[in-house]
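The material for today's practical consists of a large collection of protein records. Backbone structure tokens are a discrete shorthand for how the chain folds in space. An example says more than a description, so a record of this kind follows:
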Amino acid sequence: MERLLLINPRSGDDDPSPGELERAARERGVDTRLLKPEDDPAELARASGAAVLGAAGGDGSLALVAAAAIDTGAAFVCIPFGTRNHFARDLGLDRDDPLGALAAFDDDAVERRIDAGKANGRIFLNNISLGAYAGLVHRREHHRRRGEALARARALVQTARQRHHLRARVNGEDISARVLLVGNNRYAVDLFTLGERERLDAGELHLGAAAGWLPNAWEERVAPRFTIELPQSQVRAAIDGEPVTLDTPLEIESLPRALRVLVPGTSSGDDNDTGGGPTMHDNPRATEEEQEQAQEGRQQEEESMRGMEHQDPDTQGKRTHDDAESE
């Protein structure tokens, strides 16, 4: 098998549908597999022996297949098929065009070398977070599994009620924060850039710690490796937006240029290759629509903070029960 695309049919908004994406890939001569809930994407990718491994899904699904590509030396293809598609955006792809991204399987595709992060042995493409945001991700997953509508809104309200800070030692220095995030390369911490990264190949980790729920002011550090010590033996985290529980201490490192990525030749902009070509600055500027969406999202979260007791329909009489279940 030369080329394989693993498709998460539970991702995306059905435009295109998983079946349409699968047919379009097969028309290009790409083997495909629609993932079942019990499938392990990383193991399927490793066992395939494919020289090119592609993933269509959200950032969490992409990271699992990217890890297999690193392990096997295969090239990786990103098909944006999730909700936010942050990695595709920072790679320079049109994250609203999964069918167009299939051109990365073509013979004229451009290969680039980019960094990956590793946290306690697990590969990530975007970031790992602890504290309030990680709690939000875990609670959202909890409500989703219960089949509740508006899972994100309910998770946001429950998370906002908790005021405790995360206390940690980062490379030997004490930090107290509500949100702690370690990114694979430097993020722009600004409302209108949506947390974008200009580079994916600088070989560095970017740590940001925010004392409040909204990142109005960050304490930032850059290093190739971070050791994060915590009082507890395990900590809830979010890796590329997926809920995980990790043993402590956390050992997080940058893997410089560890991932071979193929992108459509028409979107390359120049001839970046695996050698010492031009520095990669693939991140497009946020559109006006994206800026408006970001501002509206921040305003909604601020309003949730101020009026959270009134926005939770189950606050009266069920708060203790819900909080206990979400831990």
About this structure: The CA atoms of residues 157 and 307 lie 9 Å apart. Residues 148-161, 267-286, 297-327 have pLDDT under 50 and may be disordered.
